[in-house]
Amino acid sequence: MTITLEINGQQRTVTAPARTTLADMLRDQLGLTGVHLGCEQGVCGACTVLLDDLPVRSCLTLAASCDGSEIVTIEGLAGDDIDRLRNAFSTEGGLQCGFCTAGMLISGLELVRRRQEMTREQTCIAMSGNICRCTGYNGIIRAVEQANIAGIAAEESACVPHSSEPATAGSAPQHTREEDLS
After folding, report:
1. In terms of C-beta density within 10 A (0-12 exposed, 13-18 middle, 19 or more buried), how is residue 15 classed?
2. What is the predicted pLDDT for the residue at 135?
3. Distance (Å, rounded) from C-alpha 120 to C-alpha 128?
4. pTM over 0.85
5. Which pick of 42, 52, 68, 75 has the fewest CB atoms within 10 Å?
């Protein structure tokens, strides 16, 4: 089968047998080895990638079913949210052997992008689809929480008027975000 995808921002056309998993295609044909294969049964989360902005287990996803989709692997992540999350993983001790890290970062990034306040229990449940062999869960959960809080704060500060004079009733707020200016 011939499959056309946008992978990490680049249009790619790949020929693969119909039963090829997305993980195998990404690793074997495209050299994107940040996609790790652990259990190959969709349990460990090491192979998690973003498929049209949603985290999926690439070991369970047929490559052919992704034709026309956008795929982002750990190699293609960029921006403030992933930078916050990577820094938090470093400062909070969320990095151990590194095998689970790519899947953890992708799953954690999806939570950070939601911009929702979450309890520790909610964060643990949301991250429970990713298994850490080294049992580094406390550092990982703290990192996701820290990055989420920082993302919420950054978004809130982007919406605060930057005028030196206080806003008065009837005055329009001054926005700094580009999408608010259109």
Report:
1. exposed
2. 77
3. 12
4. no
5. 68
